[in-house]
C-alpha cells in the first residue's frame, strides 16, 4: 500500500509538469515562430530591421500613444462607474443584483459593429448630445465604447472582490465615525478591492489596446486599425508589431500591478536605500 502511494506521488508530478510544458509550448511556440519570422526582413541575415523600421515610424508611436491614453481613460472611467454601482447594489439593492449582472453581460451579446452604429444614430448631428461632430467628441465616444466593451470583465472582477469583504460592517463602522458615503467609498471600499480593480484594469487594457471595430468605424488613429493596415501592406513589420504589442501589454500590466500592490509609503528599492542609510550612518559616526 505504501509503495503504491509513493508510486502515485511520483506519477502525478510528471503528469502535472507534462501539462504545464504542453500549455507553455502551445502558448510560446507561436510567439517564437512570429519573433523568428520578424527577424528575416533582410534577406540572408538575422536582424532587427523590422523593429528599427517601426520605431522610425511616427505613425506607430502616435497610434500606440493614442490607444494607451484611451485605454487608461477607459480604465479610470470604468472603475469610477463600476465600484460605486456594485457597492450600492450590494448594500442597498441586493434584489437588483441579478438585473445589473444581466445588464453587464449585454456587451458580450451585442456585436461591437451594432454598438457603433447605435452610437452614431444616438449621438449623431441631430441628437441632444452630439458626439460625432468633432475629433475630440469622437475620442470621447471611443472611450465610452471601450468602457462598455470591458464592462462584463470589470464588473465581475470588482463584484468578486466586493463579495470577499463585509460591506455592511465596514459601512456601519465608518458611519459611526462620522464618514460620509463618498468618503466611505474612497477611503474604505477602494483600498479593500484594490486587487480586484487591478484585475479589471488588466482585462480592460488587453481589450482596448488592440480593439479594431470601434476605432476603425469611428475613424480614430488607434493601434488596432494601424495593426490591420500594416498586415495588409507589409510582411515582416506586422510580425514585429505583434511581438511589440505583446511585450508592451505585459510590461504595462506588470507596472500596474507593481504600483497597485505597493503599500502607502513603501520605497521602491528598500534594500538599496537601507544600504545607503547604513553607509551614511557610518560616515556620520
From TrEMBL:
BP term (GO), one: transmembrane transport
Gene Ontology CC entries for this record: plasma membrane
CDD domains: TM_PBP2
Family named by the database record: Belongs to the binding-protein-dependent transport system permease family.
Domain ABC transmembrane type-1: 60-256
Keyword match Cell membrane: yes
InterPro entries per UniProt: MetI-like, MetI-like_sf
Lipid bilayer topology: Multi-pass membrane protein
Entry-linked Gene3D superfamilies: MetI-like (1.10.3720.10)
Species this chain originates from: Salinicola endophyticus
Pfam families xref list: BPD_transp_1
Location of the protein in the cell: Cell inner membrane; Cell membrane
Superkingdom classification of source: Bacteria
Protein name: ABC transporter permease subunit
Amino acid at each position: 500500500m505504501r509503495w503504491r502511494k509513493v508510486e502515485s506521488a511520483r506519477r502525478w508530478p510528471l503528469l502535472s509538469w507534462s501539462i504545464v510544458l504542453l500549455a507553455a509550448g502551445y502558448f510560446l511556440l507561436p510567439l517564437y515562430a512570429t519573433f523568428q519570422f520578424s527577424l528575416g526582413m533582410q534577406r540572408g541575415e538575422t536582424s532587427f530591421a523590422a523593429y528599427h523600421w517601426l520605431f522610425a515610424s511616427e505613425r506607430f508611436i502616435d497610434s500606440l500613444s493614442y490607444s494607451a491614453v484611451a485605454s487608461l481613460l477607459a480604465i479610470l472611467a470604468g472603475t469610477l462607474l463600476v465600484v460605486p454601482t456594485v457597492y450600492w447594489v450590494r448594500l442597498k439593492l441586493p434584489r437588483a443584483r441579478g438585473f445589473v449582472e444581466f445588464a453587464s453581460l449585454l456587451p458580450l451579446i451585442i456585436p461591437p459593429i451594432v454598438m457603433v452604429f447605435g452610437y452614431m444614430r444616438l449621438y449623431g448631428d441631430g441628437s441632444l448630445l452630439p458626439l460625432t461632430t468633432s475629433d475630440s467628441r469622437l475620442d470621447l465616444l471611443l472611450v465610452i465604447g471601450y468602457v462598455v466593451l470591458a464592462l462584463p470583465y470589470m464588473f465581475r472582477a470588482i463584484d468578486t472582490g466586493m463579495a470577499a469583504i463585509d460591506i455592511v460592517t465596514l459601512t456601519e463602522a465608518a458611519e459611526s465615525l462620522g464618514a460620509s458615503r463618498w468618503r466611505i467609498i474612497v477611503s474604505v471600499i477602494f483600498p479593500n478591492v484594490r486587487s480586484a480593480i487591478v484585475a479589471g484594469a488588466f482585462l480592460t487594457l488587453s481589450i482596448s489596446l488592440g480593439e479594431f471595430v470601434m476605432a476603425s468605424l469611428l475613424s480614430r488613429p488607434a493601434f488596432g486599425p494601424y495593426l490591420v493596415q500594416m498586415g495588409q501592406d507589409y510582411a515582416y513589420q506586422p510580425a514585429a508589431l505583434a511581438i511589440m504589442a505583446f511585450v508592451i501589454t505585459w510590461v504595462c500590466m506588470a507596472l500596474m500591478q507593481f504600483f497597485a500592490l505597493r503599500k502607502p509609503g513603501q520605497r521602491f528599492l528598500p534594500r538599496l536605500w537601507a544600504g545607503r542609510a547604513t553607509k551614511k550612518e557610518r560616515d556620520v559616526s
